[in-house]
Amino acid sequence: MLRYCQLFAEVQDKQLFLPVFNIGQFGTDFRFLKLKTSMRIVPNSANQIFLNFLHALVNNPSLYGHVTIPSYIRSVTTTEQLCCSIYSDQLLNQATTMHKSLIGRAILAFRNETVNEFNNILLDRMPGLEHRFEAVNHVEMREEDAVSEPFAPEYLQSIELASIPPSCLKLKIGAPVILIRNLSPKQGLCNGTRMRVLGIGRNCLQVAILGSKWDGEVRLLPRIKLTTSEEDLPFILERKQFPIRLCFAMTVNKSQEQSLQQVGVDLRTNAFTHGQLYVALSRVTSLDGLTILPSPGTAALTQNVVFPEVLL
Fold first, then answer.
1. Sequence-ordered list of residues with C-beta below 8 angstroms from that of 195, at least 6 positions apart, any chain
2. What is the pLDDT of residue 307?
3. What's the pLDDT at 207?
4. Which residues fall within 8 angstroms of residue 299, CB to CB, at 6 or more apart?
5. Below-50 pLDDT ranges, the chain
6. Does the predicted model carry a pTM greater than 0.85?
7. How confident is the model at residue 144, as a pLDDT?
8. DSSP the chain
9. Who is most buried in 20, 37, 147, 249, counting CB within 10 A?
């Protein structure tokens, strides 16, 4: 029998009994396994020095805080150069007709404002007619918080949060987009699924999934109502819009669990949460596919935020 103790928590005058197991007496019944081989970055001689650097980012205390990005990682000096290194004009022209042209490519940034900047630049460079979709916003408030004057529509349209789609969604045929809600996991429509726009209607989009086992399969996306959480705003904002965002670029947090062949990382803004720099640099499958944009005059110096107490 395994030894355990009970913790008592009183919730609404009821006692909950939560078992907590004591693993100190297990002896040889457990083995500790360590991950030694990267399953994301191709383990060859050219990438080994890069793999060692990534390992040191979270295991070497001398690299905690500020760290200088090694010179063997390709860098550019302007946002235009970073955009061109990941999405050439030829690729953007092919995106309207070729499904594979945008697979495995993304620019990563730490802030939503920077992501929107890159997405707007690349959408403007992309050929084709631009379609704009304005969201329908509605505010729900509790009676005790009700205001005498309604919120101005201009104010509601100006609200931009990561949990809801943009109030003004701009699209073109062939543009890559990312789903921000779980619609149908059985059909591959999960939060974080990347897709390519095939057809644009007033209340429906035709898209093709990029990558995964559903690669190339066509899906239809309707406009739906999405709401903010109670922590986001003093009120609940209900927005009717397509549940997608452009994803030429995406935030580092949104890129987790994705493997990409061509990655651009904007380091003009420092990482601000645990392991963000490691996540950004490790999305790429080969050092040859990585490009960074450092802050001007900093010698590629950036912030590496690591909290050793959360590491095993």
1. 176, 177, 178, 179, 207, 208, 209, 210, 219, 244
2. 86
3. 96
4. 68
5. 1-21
6. no
7. 57
8. ---EEEEEEEETTEEEEEEEE-GGG-GGG-------S-SSS--SHHHHHHHHHHHHHHH-GGGSEEEEPPTTSEE-SSHHHHHHHHS-HHHHHHTTT-GGGGTTEEEEESSHHHHHHHHHHHHHHS-S--EEEEPEEEEE--GGG--SSPPPHHHHHH---TTS--SEEEE-TT-EEEE-S-SBGGGTB-TT-EEEEEEE-SSEEEEEE-SSTTTT-EEEEE-EEEE--TTTSSSEEEEEE-SEEE-SEEETTTTTT--BSEEEEEESS---STTHHHHHHTSBSSGGGEEEEEPTTSTTEEEE---GGG--
9. 249
Amino acid identity of residue 80, one-letter, is E
